[in-house]
Design brief:
The protein has helices at residues 10-21, 47-57, 67-73, 93-102, 112-129, 145-152, 167-179, 183-192, 201-204, 207-221, 240-248, 307-326; strands spanning 2-6, 28-33, 38-40, 78-81, 106-109, 133-134, 158-164, 231-232, 251-260, 265-274, 285-292, 297-303. With 329 residues, the chain is α/β, with parallel strands linked by helices. Bound molecules: NADP nicotinamide-adenine-dinucleotide phosphate.
Length: 329
């Protein structure tokens, strides 16, 4: 199956490296683009060369070509869209995804913006065009949440869900509890470790977790919820005293995203949890508990971010498309 890749940052590089390393998967890269350049080869790109060029010059290809050229002209079956998330406009990803769907190309993305803002429209468009739109990597990185919902829990009614969907917040809360650090000290440590962005607003105010909650709720219940519907409190106002008091009760505090349509609950907030609760773990991991009618409670835990970890979810989606659509064609 031929693949075009838009975005060659942390995730795009992970995908490209894994496509080069795992050449037995039968996934051939025929188009690639970053913000400044692009490159196409219908017979398969020399990935090692392109990655070396990107590292050396900052561009992956020809500066006269763009992502739009790859999406509109390259020879590919599936587009991988991994440009930065814009939670307000969803662009440039929405435009990229629509252009690929219009060409009847399958799309895989890790970009939360287009799915949270226009997921319903994009899913309908994909269905109309007879292709697949998959976005496993948008929620909880490497954890196969969507595959579990679609396959492992097929036939189950999902009653409710709750989870730790932001590793940066989990790291900060872990460090505040373990060392009695202030929020500012723990945030500085998270920055030094490369876990927090220069502007941590999306993470610490619960926006990132809320976007993932919206994606999950709309995927499971198709209830048309938006970011503004999420009752959201971040961790940026938490004091070491709050964590110390929780500790005295044998508990700790975690940023929990939770949804229960029957209770009209859609919330991201710091919650006091018993230290033995399955959602209490250290560091940057993510976890999600699904409450279902038949399987009852299932908790998935794993890496919520990372270059190769996120590539794992993207390659899983690509192989699903290859097996379901492309090999049969
Ligand atoms: N990092 C993770 O662990 C992780 C996990 C799950 C989901 N995600 C999501 O995955 C997406 C990619 O994340 P990332 O960490 O790889 O981001 P990143 O490191 O910022 O890389 C973004 C890439 O997109 C390129 N780009 C920006 N605007 C573009 C445009 N208009 N056309 C073509 N390319 C464009 C950039 O080009 P230049 O190289 O030229 O700047 C860069 O290569 C984001 O939506 C993010 O939220 C990330």
């Amino acid at each position: 199956m031929k693949v075009a890749l838009i975005g060659l940052g942390s995730v795009g590089r992970g995908v490209a490296e894994m496509l080069a390393k795992k050449d037995d998967l039968g996934l051939v890269l025929t188009g690639i683009a970053d913000s400044k350049s692009a490159f196409m080869d219908p017979d398969g790109i020399d990935i090692t060369r392109v990655l070396a060029k990107k590292k050396k010059t900052g561009s992956c290809g020809d500066q006269h070509l763009s992502a739009a050229d790859v999406i509109k002209k390259a020879d590919y079956d599936a587009l991988v869209e991994v440009t930065p998330t814009n939670a307000l406009s969803g662009e440039p990803a929405i435009g990229h995804i629509k252009a690929a769907l219009n060409r009847k190309k399958h799309v895989v993305t890790s970009n939360k913006g287009p799915i949270a803002l226009a997921g319903k429209e994009l899913r309908a468009m994909a269905k109309k065009k007879g292709v697949s739109l998959r976005y496993e990597a948008t929620v909880a990185g490497a954890i196969p949440v969507m595959h579990t919902l679609e396959h492992g829990l097929a036939g189950n009614e999902i009653l409710a869900l709750y989870g730790v969907l932001n590793g940066t917040c989990n790291f900060i809360l872990t460090r505040m509890a373990a060392e009695g650090l202030t929020y500012e000290q723990a945030l500085m440590e998270a920055r030094e470790m490369g876990y927090a962005e220069a502007d941590p607003t999306y993470d610490v105010q619960g926006i990132d977790a809320a976007i993932k909650l919206v994606i999950l709720a709309n995927t499971i219940w198709d209830n048309g919820v938006k970011l503004a519907d999420v009752d959201r409190t971040g961790i940026d106002l938490l004091t070491p005293d709050a964590l110390r008091l929780a500790d005295e009760m044998g508990c700790t505090i975690r940023l929990i995203a939770e949804a229960n349509p029957k209770k009209r609950l859609l919330r991201v907030s710091p919650r006091i949890l018993d230290k033995n609760h399955p959602l209490v773990f250290e560091g940057t991991l993510n976890a999600l508990t699904l409450e279902t009618d038949m399987a009852k409670q299932i908790t998935l835990i794993g890496r919520g971010a990372g270059s190769v970890e996120t590539a794992s979810a993207i390659i899983g989606d690509l192989l699903y498309i290859r097996d379901r659509y492309v090999q049969r064609a």
